Amino acid sequence: MRSRIGAALAAALVVSSSVWAQTRAPTALPDLPPGTFDFCPRPVRPVCVDDNDTYTKPASRKACDEEMARFVKATFDYRSCLTIQMENVIRDTNRLAEKFRCKADGKRNCG
Questions:
Q1: Contact call for residues 25 and 78 (beta carbons, < 8 A)
Q2: Per-chain mean pLDDT for the chain
Q3: How far is residue 41's CA from residue 76's CA, in Å, rounded to a whole number?
Q4: Using CA atoms, how far apart are residues 6 and 88, in angstroms rounded to an integer?
Q5: Cα 28 to Cα 51: distance, rounded to the nearest angstrom
Q6: d(Cα 23, Cα 73) in Å, to the nearest integer?
């Protein structure tokens, strides 16, 4: 199971940059209740990399270089966001398991 999660995170890093990820560094997502919408948008890959005109003009190359820098930052921000989401899911699962064990033991005040 662990290797599948690691592989999924590694695969997620091969994505691309979004305006959201470029302008908002997700330092921490709140601990959201179950069913609450929380989303880490995948970065959008800069199209300039595959455009041959990018490499014929210095201004285009510079613009693409800046876009690539934003893409790299957005990729790391995306990874951080996913990590926080995963931690929140694990924390929620642990709380739920603890509540179940408490109730299964016949206790009443189980949170």
A1: no
A2: 77
A3: 12
A4: 17
A5: 35
A6: 10
